[in-house]
Design a protein that fits this description.
Distance between the termini: 5 Å
CATH architecture: Roll
Pfam family, one: EVE
CATH topology: ph1033 like fold
Helix content: 10-25%
Protein name: EVE domain-containing protein
Largest sheet: 6 strands, mixed
Strand content: 25-35%
Number of strands: 6
InterPro entries: 5hmC_binding (IPR052181), EVE_domain (IPR002740), PUA-like_sf (IPR015947), THYN1-like_EVE (IPR047197)
CATH class: Alpha Beta
Radius of gyration: 15 Å
């Protein structure tokens, strides 16, 4: 089992949107960065844990926990000319862009705001806290995931995030 942080702008797709989706599930589509795509395509597996992060928020924060319910597969939005994530160079026979399916588990209340996370010495080295880190899908070490769970007052075992 691995752990990840997925960033989303709440005005585009929020954690509340995920929790309101049928079965609390959605495809994590529209990722158009090659490094993030490689994680989606090659590394993220069913059962992996996800920290859901609201970027471009005031303040940015980790707002929920989710899990992967379907591993990487071609992102259909890349082939749909009516979709804002359409990529005319993407070919269904040799897809460029991938998505995973995720399921919302629980909201983190209150959210773990970025300024608080920056003060937490146990999170030193976490990708999210690196200067200039903009990657929308990023790995989280098991140790950092556990610290986040503790700060949120959650138990990953009770959430079914064990492995």
């Amino acid at each position: 089992m691995a752990y990840w942080l997925f960033k989303s702008e709440p005005s585009v797709f929020s954690f509340a949107d995920l929790m309101a989706a049928p079965d609390r599930r959605t495809g994590w589509d529209g990722v158009r960065n090659h490094q993030a795509r490689n994680f989606l395509r090659d590394q993220i597996q069913v059962g992996d844990g996800i920290l859901f992060y609201h970027s471009n928020a005031d303040p940015p924060a980790i707002v929920g926990v989710a899990r992967v319910t379907r591993a990487g597969h071609p992102d259909p939005t890349a082939f749909n000319p009516d979709d804002p994530h359409f990529d005319p160079k993407s070919d269904p026979a040799r897809p460029t862009w991938y998505q995973v399916e995720i399921e919302g588990i629980v909201a983190i209340a209150p959210p773990l705001e970025l300024p608080r996370l920056r003060k937490e010495t146990r999170l030193e080295g976490m990708e999210l806290l690196r200067k200039g880190s903009r990657l929308s899908v990023q790995p989280v070490s098991p140790e950092h995931f556990e610290v986040i769970m503790n700060l949120a007052g959650l138990d990953r075992h009770r959430l079914g995030l064990t492995g």
